[in-house]
Each structure stands twice: as structure tokens, then as C-alpha cells.
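Marked as duplicate of an earlier ticket. Keeping the data here for the record.
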Amino acid sequence: MASILPASNKSMRSDRDTYVGKRFVHVKNPYLDSMDEDILYHLDLGTKTHDLPAMFGDVKFVCVGGSSNRMKAFALFMQKELSLEENGEDIQDICAGTDRYCMYKIGPVLSISHGMGIPSISIMLHELIKLLHHAQCCDVTIIRIGTSGGIGITPGSVVITDKAVDSFFKPQFQQIILDKIVTRSTELDKELAEELFNCSKGIPNCPARIGHTMCTYDFYEGQGRLDGALCSFSREKKVDYLKRAYKAGVRNIEMESTVFAAMCRLCGLKAAVVCVTLLDRLECDQINLPPDVLADYQQRPQLLISKFIKQQLGLRDQTS
């Protein structure tokens, strides 16, 4: 790891008196305070090797997404939107020492990739939340931006999640911990969802709606696709399942929202999920969009989040 600091016997417990009246990041682990050092292995960061409060203490917005390339593109976009282009140099990947995730900081905005699926985003979130805690960040808003499959809506629509539901359409995340099934709520911040929806109204060619997002453990059979290496159901059963999902309020499907919502809620983070739909799963299973259309769709959540962040910072928006 880079940026080696002198060893210190000081406890990692932060002085929270500074944050009275503010919303700070909780960690729900009593063992962390007894650790002399916390190594955030998959982020290539640590409490002894890096001055985390100096590096990240001013972070107010964290945006996470699956693709490393997309999150770098978002960071470059935010650098331009916030007028923070200093000397034309390329932005630096803070996690360059690992090939698991990428991380870029642009002023008060952190842009991080999380890979694909619940296990990958879960690992990243554990270390990200500890990072925000060690850095003494407060009043942080975290938003997952990404792509998804729509159900009964036009491709290119942006879905702002009000409830993250599992494959049984229940707003919960179930995880096996030791030999027990632990169920956690996936409630997201309703006011934040409404704020984001209102922001979308002034953005041209960015149709948005609020709806449930279904999170699955798999891209193929778990989402009722007929084009995987395995398929154990009929076309009729697939269509029936997706129609029942639509009737239950589900408007899109992805693979990260339940664990994201559950972990953020437990740790006191104001959270939202904003995903564009690339196809209507009632019509087809495969994504076959022209490159220019795909690029346009993928930028829609970025435009929305950029406008929201600039409004929160009191900056003039130029996208509407």
C-alpha cells in the first residue's frame, strides 16, 4: 500500500462529539474498536497506511455502479460538471493497487465500482462503510447507478427504486450467517426517491418513474431468461412470473439492490437506487441495442444524479 504513515496506538474510535446534530456513518461491529489497525484489503487502503479523514472527510455523495469503466466515466463527467478540471490531468484511481474495484474522488463526490451481483457489492460496501466511518464523514448520501432489465416499461426508462424486493416480491434481504438465515429490511429513503424523481422532470429525454426493483442472485435462470446455458422452465412460466412481478409493483430487475438497501439502512446512510432499463423483459431476453443508443441510455442515470448533486451543493444546473 502507498502513503505509509507512522504507526499509532491511538484507538480507531472517532470523537463523535464533533458530529452532534449531524447524521454520521454507523458501523454495527463492536470488535472494530479493539483493533489496532483496520486493513480495507479490497480497496487497498488502511487506517495505519492512509490518513483517511484527510483523504475522505469531506465526502458527501457516494455513487456506486457495477462497471469500472462506467464509474470512471461518471467521475470524469462530475469533474466537468463541478468545474473541478484542474490542469487537464487524468483522474487517479485511489484503488489502483487492487484489481477488484476502482475509486475516484471529485471534490465531495466519491465514484466507486462494485462489480456484479450481491457478493461483490457486499464486500465493497463493508469496506466502503468502514472507510466512511474511519474518515469521520457525516451527512453522506449514497446512490447506486446502473443498468437493469425493465418489466412492462419502455427501454431507456429510468427507475428510481422505492422498494428493493427479493425474488418472492418481498422487501427483504436474507443472508446465511454462520448456520442461520438472517432477514433484514430493504427500506430505502422515500424523500430521497421523491427528490430524485422531481429532479428528473427537467432533464430532456430522461423518462423516469418510481417503482419496485427486484434483486436476484443470477442473470439467467434467476431472472427467468430463456437464453442461458441452463433453462428449467417454459416460456409460459417465465411470462407468468414476470407478469406477477409487474402486478406486485416491480418495474425493473437487477442483482444488487437488496443488500445495498439493507446495509445502508443499518449503517445510517441515506440511500437510493437509480437504474436505466435496457429492454422490456416481457418482450425479449437479450440486449441488442446499437452502441450509440446503449451509451445514451447508460448516461441517463448519470445526468440525473449530476443534477441532484449540483442542486444539493447550490450550483447552477445546465442540463435542463
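See parent ticket for discussion. Residues 78 and 133 are 24 Å apart (CA to CA).
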